[in-house]
Amino acid sequence: MVMKISVVYASPDRPVLLNCRVEEGCTVKQAIEQSGLLRYCTDIDLAKQKVGIFGKFTKLDNPLKEGDRVEIYQKITRVLDDDDDDDD
Fold first, then answer.
1. Any residues with CB less than 8 A from the CB of 14 and at least 6 apart, and which?
2. What is the pLDDT of residues 23-53, one digit of tens each?
3. Are 24 and 41 spatial neighbours (Cβ–Cβ below 8 Å)?
């Protein structure tokens, strides 16, 4: 059975959303690979970046369900400016 899912990556340069069809039992990693996203966004490193489904962290080997939205998250960094202090 074929399922419809989407793969999303909030690239710093341009957000990408790909609608895909995958076989039932497809994992998060398989869906990302099958979507072709890794060819377009060469900065993605699945060994280092977290992934999720609808905003909840998940593992790459998690099986997907019909309609799932796979998300690849950017590494979060915080840059302090002169107005930031920890004395609050």
1. none
2. 999 999 999 999 999 998 998 999 999 999 9
3. no
3-state secondary structure the chain: CEEEEEEEEECCCCEEEEEEEEECCCEHHHHHHHHCHHHHCCCCCCCCCCEEECCEEECCCCECCCCCEEEECCCCCCCCCCCCCCCC
Please state the domain extents for the chain.
2-72
From the CB of residue 59, how many other CB atoms can be counted at a distance below 10 Å? 11
CATH topology (fold) of 2-72? Ubiquitin-like (UB roll) (3.10.20)
> Global pTM?
0.82
